Amino acid sequence: MAVEITALNWVPDFARGYVRDLRPRWACEEIGLPYTTRLISPVPPKPDWYFDEQPWGQVPVLHDGDVQLFESGAILLHIAEKDIRLLSRDPQQRATSIAWVFAALNSVEPGLFELGNVTLFSKDAEWAKLRRPSLMEDIGRKLDRLVDALGDRAWLGDAFSVADIAMVTVLRNADKSELLRARPTLAAYVERGMARPAFERAMAAQLADFQPEPAAA
Amino acid sequence: MAVEITALNWVPDFARGYVRDLRPRWACEEIGLPYTTRLISPVPPKPDWYFDEQPWGQVPVLHDGDVQLFESGAILLHIAEKDIRLLSRDPQQRATSIAWVFAALNSVEPGLFELGNVTLFSKDAEWAKLRRPSLMEDIGRKLDRLVDALGDRAWLGDAFSVADIAMVTVLRNADKSELLRARPTLAAYVERGMARPAFERAMAAQLADFQPEPAAA
Q: Which residues from chain B sit within 8 angstroms of residue A95, using beta carbons?
């Protein structure tokens, strides 16, 4: 039975291909799990019922039969539990994959959230101009650790797993900055993830769901 | 068999009771899972072998038999899988709890990380003074959503779960700011968590492990 992923029916050009429903789409594509999309409008105000499903008013939400959940990390783990190609049953490999999902979302993404704020949403604010150098240093130090941890392996664990879906989609938030260009190990890792046919299908599907203009949900 | 939690043997006063090994300690205490601690020094440089266990050089790390893992969120889920008092076997309740663990760590904590930077670590920097008002607004909007989501329930799910360990320990990072004082629902929620005997034991145990001076690991 197909799962249902909630996504947006429109975003500005700069966000296309980066909205977080890409994560569960990619996970579904990796294991051949069919999914449908429920498209909602980004135009505020969101309807009250939506906050009951997603307390921040964001996407994605996953419906899987009678079960619904939010947060892309939780949704990734939920889908990953269905197939060893995303989450091994070996206890150590399973633990390593889940650790890296959290590492991507709690240790790497927060700095990149703020970088998006500094370089895009608040770029004209004086604080943002002053903050940028130290923020780039903070993120850079974290990414240097990630380079060491990845070493010469292709993926974070012994094989591709849900951890790589999380980390590649997090790192793509920096794909226009020197943070990745200066770290060929990470740039190659992101390229490797994006070259997977499942990623390409997920990306194409997200882009195909956008309407020319913001439409009511 | 006891699990082993890696913690620090010293931190400055302001950090005592807030280091993230508190999370797995609390989880263990809730279910009566015995644990030992391995104490490491906060004084750099960390030994190379430690980065093999924890790529950021932080705590906690969990050892559970032959399995080791890092990231407090992953460790919380690992412990929670052992006992329905932390993670229900009901599919929806399980999904809700895991969603809120990620919500705490990926949607709420990132703003509070930056607030720690603005109010403590970088407080004398010009950018930090300029950033504070908008950051407080950003976090406040998120916390207002959390107030709505919590409603008049005692815990994030139908009963106390691992989600509350994650969220209460995240919110405690703001316990000295008006962010919680201005939101009695959240202040009461944090107090409720901290009043649990298991929390009190975990807190006492973390404090008891600190040495008077930083000691080599």
A: 67-69, 74, 78
Whether the ipTM is more than 0.90: the answer is yes
User: How many CB atoms are closer than 10 A to CB B56?
Assistant: 17
Which residues fall within 8 angstroms of residue A168, CB to CB, at 6 or more apart? A189, A190, A193, A194, A199
Do the chains contact at A56 and B142, CB–CB below 8 Å? yes
Element (H, E) at B61: strand B61-64
Please tell me which residue of chain B has the smallest CA distance to A48: B148
pTM higher than 0.95, yes or no? yes
pLDDT single digits (tens) A94-107: 999 999 999 999 99
From B137's Cα to the closest Cα of chain A, the distance in A is 14
**Inter-chain residue contact A67 with B102, CB threshold 8 Å:** no
CATH code for A91-196?
Answer: 1.20.1050.10
Q: According to CATH, where is 1.20.1050.10 located in chain A?
A: 91-196
**CATH 3.40.30.10 location in chain B:** 3-85+199-209
Compute the nearest-CA separation of A79 from chain B (Å): 11
Q: Where in chain B is the domain with CATH 1.20.1050.10?
A: 91-195
Q: Which chain B residue's Cα is nearest to A75?
A: B99
- Superfamily of domain A3-85+199-209 in CATH is Glutaredoxin (3.40.30.10)
Tens digit of each residue's pLDDT (9 = 90 or more) over A29-62: 999 999 999 999 998 888 999 999 999 999 999 9
Q: Report d(CA B71, CA B17) in Å as an integer.
A: 18
**Backbone dihedral region of B172: left (phi > 0), alpha (psi from -120 to 50 degrees) or beta?**
alpha
Q: Which two tokens stand for residue B22?
A: 């508190």
- Report the CATH number of the B91-195 domain: 1.20.1050.10
* Shortest alpha-carbon distance between residue A214 and chain B (Å): 24
Q: Chunked in runs of 10, what are the mean pLDDT values of chain B (217 residues)?
A: 96 96 98 97 91 96 98 98 98 98 98 96 96 97 98 97 98 94 97 98 98 75
